[in-house]
Amino acid sequence: SACKLKHARCRLMWYDMRYGHKTILGDERFVSSIKQFKLENVPDWDILNLMVNRGTLMIINDLLLEKKELEVTQQKLIVKHLMKAIIGYGDALLYFLNNYSWSYLEKQQLMRQQTQVDSEFQSWYDAAIEFRFQPDYIKFLQNDLTEITERLRQKFSQIFL
User: Is the pLDDT of residue 52 over 90?
Assistant: First the structure.
């Protein structure tokens, strides 16, 4: 309800909603009036929850990839999960580097500017953001999804462990 939202603790998704979305029904000023939805109020544990959520998508992919023959819809789901994981982990990295933004375009630029971030991960993040705007499954389905998943897992481990 509006009352619950008005008094909710700040979460990353609420911050993103406040600054990055438009109201299509109801009072246009309502969301922007919720003052606690600021980046500095997002608790670190919420970013860790994002990472767990996106890591779970990688585990779901592992289960799907155990099948010998995957239908195209399953292959596309794996790609979608990979893109969400890349963006989620990239967003977490930007957050902990104090460079997070609600804007996908700005996050893409911020990631490109990070000199301490591995260039391969920057390329993956860039591709995932592009996928977010214009999904091109064929580009990814031409590759070995098991190999991509493993490379990403290794990259996530290098960055976050």
Answer: yes
